Amino acid sequence: MIYLQISTAQGPAECRIFARFVLKKLLAEAEARNVKAEIAGETADKHGILSAVLILEGAAADTLAQSWQGTLQWVCASPVRPKHPRKNWYIGIFRLPEKPEMPSESEIEFQTCRSGGKGGQHVNKTESAVRATHKASGISVRVESERSQHANKKRALELLAYKMAEHQTAQNADYAKQQHSGLYQVERGNPKRVFEGPGFRERHA
């Protein structure tokens, strides 16, 4: 299981537009490579996203993650500020620790409910879905991807830990800026992947 964070480091609207595109493209590449991809947390605004945390699982997950980790560059005239002189926009993708600090179960309120969607009669008749809510912050997740309530509860705790971390990142800009500035210092002159124009055409070496 691999956790990736897409970060704009509170960058301008152009960076957030780029980050939204990158999230969609990464999800599409994951599907094409048979990698299970799940959005654990996302901070969005009217232009795009400020940050997002993805969970990747599958044989090709590590290869996919490595193909994205680092600084990404978008070369394009600003779509929201036509006269702006800047044409280079940067965001970063970095790998988070695989085991975040789990909240204590005493801090969490669990509720069970019937699963919905695909799965036939089994999911409709059993209350295997789990909603976990962190009492102090009100942050909650709902998990029904596993067949057993126990497995969904375990998964809910993992997702809740990352959603709480994502929330803290959004609230504390210093954290994101510190992570992102580290990428800038090392990688800005040598971005991992470069996209061009309003259609985000990828530049290949």
TrEMBL record:
<dbReference type="InterPro" id="IPR000352">
    <property type="entry name" value="Pep_chain_release_fac_I"/>
</dbReference>
<protein>
    <submittedName>
        <fullName>Putative peptide chain release factor H</fullName>
    </submittedName>
</protein>
<dbReference type="Pfam" id="PF00472">
    <property type="entry name" value="RF-1"/>
</dbReference>
<dbReference type="GO" id="GO:0003747">
    <property type="term" value="F:translation release factor activity"/>
</dbReference>
<dbReference type="InterPro" id="IPR045853">
    <property type="entry name" value="Pep_chain_release_fac_I_sf"/>
</dbReference>
<feature type="domain" description="Prokaryotic-type class I peptide chain release factors">
    <location>
        <begin position="114"/>
        <end position="130"/>
    </location>
</feature>
<dbReference type="InterPro" id="IPR017509">
    <property type="entry name" value="PrfH"/>
</dbReference>
<comment type="similarity">
    <text>Belongs to the prokaryotic/mitochondrial release factor family.</text>
</comment>
